[in-house]
Write a structure and sequence with these properties.
alpha/beta; Rossmann fold; 3 domains; six-stranded parallel beta sheet; 14 strands
Length: 449
């Protein structure tokens, strides 16, 4: 099947690579000439596990190509996937400029039947706007060309996107055109051989499903974070509580880990957009407003713990930070809790030495103007002479460090853990003062300020 992917960002590139892997002829369009040049020369502009060899293999096989030529791209695929960015606007709503521009481009050039697939995360009603714009362009040209608009939201986790695409929990298709539905069934057939997980629904239901899914996951995170803060006041252990409620099959264990807040390109943006959609329709979403408020506050919890221990003025203090990306297995720092923490520590006069396995190049660009932010070549190097270690991202390599070496490197044996990686009893046995989330403070007698 011939497929065009408009946009070679995270969603577009992963989608194009995974569709080409099943034998489809995929052409990816991007107006960023430099990005297309990098892709055509074998580079990958994002970090995603397994993506580089997948792209290389399919480019070599002639099934995957990249272009800036809009005419070529629209002429190529019967299926036209729109996978461009929808960043939050000033009021929190999704900015649809790129989506609508892509729709116009298709309408201005199409000459035969097209299925226009909204892959980007877009508000309910976007497919209607895409349909209207394409129809306007066809009318302006004085031609009648049949087409359908489909909503096919992505459910890809950064760091596990390829596996999510190849082994999906579900594939949501919002459409009312039988020909388009049949084509989507054929397209996704190779991914559904064990069990049919393709869910066909109305276009508006599919658009809302994407937002509802991310909003639900964000709600679970904020719920556990709020409970974690209460657990500290009650001298309870949120990890025990997590196991206690997660063992209930009606609840399950997923997304019940307390921490220093969620970030990334999806949850913050999608929660804001859904809140704004509710406002536009006179239905304030009170639960989601609370979810967002709790998360904003949770991003300040680590800094608050540090200030409680060291005092408000952190001048002359140096902190090691492990983890900059918003989650493991990605270099994405959009809305990452690390950024809130660094900003607050700098505001109070501290110096930062940070380490992250893959996000440091991006971090260096973000903080190139900050003389009080430095980067280390290893986790232990970051701890050299630090007043405390602060863990922000749960990378696997942080899970079992050499605690004796860590204590030797640190100026004072203090660990503030925003991801609850360690057993408090283990930290106590290594004479490390330990400040996790929702598990109390564990300070050996010899530690102190």
């Amino acid at each position: 099947m011939k497929i065009t992917i408009i946009g070679t960002g995270y969603v577009g590139l992963v989608t194009g690579a995974c569709l080409s892997e099943m034998g489809n002829d995929v052409l990816c369009l991007d107006l960023d000439a430099e990005k297309v040049r990098v892709l055509n020369e074998g580079g990958i502009p994002i970090h995603e596990t397994g993506l580089a060899p997948l792209v290389a293999r399919n480019v070599s096989a002639g099934r995957l190509a990249f272009t800036t030529d809009v005419d070529r791209a629209v002429g190529h695929g019967t299926l036209q996937f729109i996978a461009v960015g929808t960043p939050p606007d000033e009021d929190g709503s999704a900015d649809l400029r790129h989506v609508l521009a892509a729709a116009r481009s298709i309408g201005q050039r199409m000459s035969d039947y097209k299925v226009i697939v909204d892959k980007s995360t877009v508000p309910v009603g976007t497919a209607d706007r895409v349909r209207e714009l394409v129809s306007e362009e066809l009318e302006r040209r004085g031609v009648q060309v049949p087409f359908a608009v489909v909503s096919n939201p992505e459910f890809l986790k950064e760091g596990a996107a390829i596996d999510d695409f190849m082994r999906p929990d579900r594939i949501v298709v919002g459409a009312d055109d039988e020909r388009a539905i049949d084509m989507m069934r054929v397209l996704y057939g190779p991914y559904l051989r064990n069990r049919d997980r393709l869910l066909v629904m109305s276009v508006r239901s599919a658009e809302l499903t994407k937002y509802a899914a991310n909003a639900m996951l964000a709600t679970r995170i904020s719920f556990m974070n709020e409970l974690a803060n209460l657990a500290e006041d009650l001298d309870a252990d949120i990890e025990s509580v997590r196991r206690g409620i997660g063992s209930d099959t009606r609840i399950g264990y997923s997304f019940l880990y307390a921490g220093c807040g969620y970030g990334g390109s999806c949850f913050p943006k999608d929660v804001k957009a859904l809140i704004q959609t509710g406002k536009l329709h006179g239905r304030p979403l009170q639960i989601l407003s609370a979810v967002e408020e709790v998360n904003n506050g949770q991003k300040q919890v680590l800094a608050a713990k540090i200030v409680e221990h060291f005092g408000a003025d952190l001048s002359g203090r140096q902190f090691a930070i492990w983890g900059l990306a918003f989650k493991p297995n990605t270099d994405d720092m959009r809305d990452a809790p690390s950024r809130d923490l660094i900003s607050e520590l700098l505001r109070r006069g501290a110096t930062i030495v940070a380490y992250d396995p893959v996000a440091m190049e991006l971090a260096k660009q973000l903080y190139h103007h900050e003389s009080q932010v430095a980067f280390a070549g290893s986790p232990l190097e970051a701890c050299e002479g630090a007043d405390a270690l602060v863990i922000v991202t749960e990378w696997k390599e942080f899970r079992s460090p050499d605690f004796a070496a860590l204590k030797t490197k640190l100026k004072t044996p203090l660990v503030f853990d925003g991801r609850n990686l360690y057993d408090p009893a283990l930290m106590k046995s290594n004479a490390l003062a330990y400040f996790p989330i929702g598990r109390g403070h564990h300070v050996p007698e010899e530690s102190g300020r």
